[in-house]
Amino acid sequence: MKEDTLDSTTNLPVAVIGAGPVGLAAAAHLLERGLEPLIFEAGPTAGAAIEQWRHIRLFSPWRFNLDAAAVRLLEGSGWESPRPTALPYGGELIDDYLAPLAALPAIASRLENGARVVAVTRSEMDKTHTRNRDTTPFVVRVEGAGGEVRDHTVAAVIDASGTWSIRNPLGTSGLPAIGEETAADRISSPLPDVTGRDRASFAGRRVLVVGAGHSAANTLISLADLAKNEADTRILWAVRGASAEKVYGGGDADGLPARGQLGSRLRRLVEAGTIELHTGFGISSFKSLDSHVTVAAVDGRTLDADIVVPCTGFRPDLDILRELRLELDPAVEAPRQLGPLIDPEFHSCGTVPPHGARLLAHPDKDFYIVGMKSYGRAPTFLLATGYEQVRSVVAALAGDREASDTVQLELPETGVCSSDAGTSCDVPAAAAAADSAESGCCAAPEPVLVGFPTGLPPAAPASTKPRPDPASITAPEGNLTPMTQEPSSTPKTPAVLFVCSKNGGKSQLAAGLMKQLAGGSVAVYSAGTKPGKSLNPQSVESLAELGIDITGEHPKPVTDEVLAAVDAVIVLGTEAKLEPREGTRFEVWETDEPSERGIEGIERMRLVRDDINARVRKLYAELTGD
C-alpha cells in the first residue's frame, strides 16, 4: 500500500548522517527504492569509528553483519562474500565489507567524507514554527575538514551517526567524577589496542579498567595476554555493582559461543588472581599526581593507577538535533515508544522485539534516528536490528506502508551483538531478569540493522508511562530462536566420529567440545587417518581456557569398528582422506584457517576452536533435536 510518499517533484535527496554499517545500509536501500541518498561521514573514510576498534573481534558471524540490500549492490560488482560462519574483526568488517561498499560508484558519488553534521533543522523554521512544517524541506548544516560550513536542503533525514564520539563519564550520577577532566592525560580511549598499537602505554604499568560490559571484558583479557610477557603489568578492574556476573554472561548457555567463552575466560582470570576485581566501586573523584592518579570510590576506598581505561558506555549527541521536534524516552533517550522495549533494567539485547519506522518516528515527519543512536543510552544494540530498522524506514519514505510495517528478525536467543563495540548486559534473558540494575551494567555498543514508516501512533505522556514488567513482555512470534530446550527422548544415543589427519588437533578440539556440550547424550569418538604421536599443545591449551581437559587423550587410528558404530562421520580439513560409508552421515568441514591472514600461535588456535565450536553446536542440535 502506497501513501505519504516523499514529494518526488522536489528532486531533493535524503540525507544519511554517518557512513558506518547502518548508514551505508540505509543508502543501499534508498538506491533500491529509487530515492537519492546524500551521505555525510565525519571521519576520513567510511567506518571511521570502527577503525578505532579494528583489533576487536565480533561475537556474531558474518551472516548477521551483512545487510541484504548492501550485499545485492556489492554482488553486482563481483564482490565475494566472506564465509558466513566466520567471526570478523572490526578491521575485517571495514576491509572486506564497508570499504568495498563505499567504493562502489553508486555510493562513492554520493558520499562526503570529512563532513561533520553540526545541525539539522527545517528550512527557514526553528522548532517553534508549526504551519506547513510537514511539507517544508530539512536543512542539514555541515562543517568540512577544512572548516568551511555549507547548508544542504534535503527531503528527509536518517541519522545513523552512532554514539562513539561521546563516552559516558566515569563518575556516578551521570556526571564526571571530581577531577576527571584534570586527569584526562591518564585516561585512555574506550577500546585501546593494548597488545598492539597502544602497547607502550600499558606494558609494565598499573592499569585500571572501569566498567561492567564486554568492552571491559575484551580489554581485561588483552591485558592478561600482555602481562604474560610484561610481568610488571598489574591489572585492576572496578565495577559499580555488587558482582561481575553480568559480564561473565551466559557461558555455555549463550547462543553465541564466542560471547559465552569471553565471559568464562574472564571469570577464570579473576579467580586465578591475574585480574584484581573491585566490586561496589562507584567512582567519586580523581587526584592527579606526577607519577600516577588516585581514584577514590564513594565509600572511601582508593586505587592507584598509571592509566585508566573507561568502559562505561556512550550516549547520543542530541545537540545537533536541537531545532527538531523529537519525542524521546526520558530514561534512555531513545525514540519514545522504543524506550520501554530496550531499557537495560528489563532487557538483554535478545529480548528486544524487531521494530521499524512506526516506533522510530518523531513529530518531525520524515526524520528518523537509526542504529546505535536510536538506542540512546541503552547499551546492547544488534547490527542485525539496525539493518531491519533502515529497511523499514526507507520503505516508509518510499510510501510503502505495508513493507515498512512488516518487520521481522530471527536471532540466537541471547542476541547478535558486537563483541565489543561496547555491548553489556547481553546475557540470556533469564539471567538478565534475575540481575538488577545495581550490577553496574555500563558499556556501549556500535553498528546494526534497518527500517521504518512515517507517522507516530499516540503515546502516553512521559510522566505517566510506566516501565513494563519484564515478565509481561513477549516478543513477536518468530523473533527469537530458543537455543535451550528440554532434551528429546530417543531410543538410541547418537554417535559421531571426528576425523583429521593426525588426530592431534582439530578432531580432538571437536570431540572435546561435543563431549562438554552433550554431557553424555551423544557418544563421541575421534581418530586420525595418519595418527601422530601426541596432541597439539595449543589445542589442549585452547580447550583448557573453556574448562575442557583433554590431556588424557592420545592420537588413534580410524578403525572399521568405530566407523560401523557411529551415525555421523565428520572430517575436519582437507588433508585427511576418508571414503564415505553407505548409510552413515558424512561431512567435510573446511574450517577457518587464520594463518592465511597472518594469525599464528594460540590466537590462531582460539579462532579455529571457535569456528569448530559453532559447527559442533549445530551438529549437536541436528543429532539430538535439542
Could you explain the architecture of this structure?
The strands form six sheets. This protein has a five-stranded parallel beta sheet, with helices on one face. With 626 residues, it is of the alpha/beta class. Mean pLDDT is 83; it is low at 413-491. The protein has 18 helices and 21 strands.
Write out key terms for the chains shown.
alpha/beta, 5-stranded parallel beta sheet, 18 helices, 21 strands, 27% helix
Q: Topology, pairings included?
A:
Elements: E1 14-17, H1 21-32, E2 37-41, H2 48-51, H3 68-75, H4 90-103, H5 105-108, E3 111-113, E4 116-122, E5 138-143, E6 149-154, E7 156-159, H6 199-202, E8 206-210, H7 214-229, E9 234-238, H8 245-248, H9 257-271, E10 275-278, E11 283-288, E12 293-297, E13 302-305, E14 307-310, H10 339-342, H11 357-360, E15 367-369, H12 383-397, H13 401-405, E16 411-412, H14 429-434, E17 480-481, E18 495-500, H15 506-518, E19 523-528, H16 537-544, H17 560-565, E20 568-572, E21 585-589, H18 601-624
Parallel strand pairs: 1-2, 1-7, 2-3, 7-15, 8-9, 8-14, 9-10, 16-17, 18-19, 18-20, 20-21
Antiparallel strand pairs: 4-5, 5-6, 11-12, 12-13
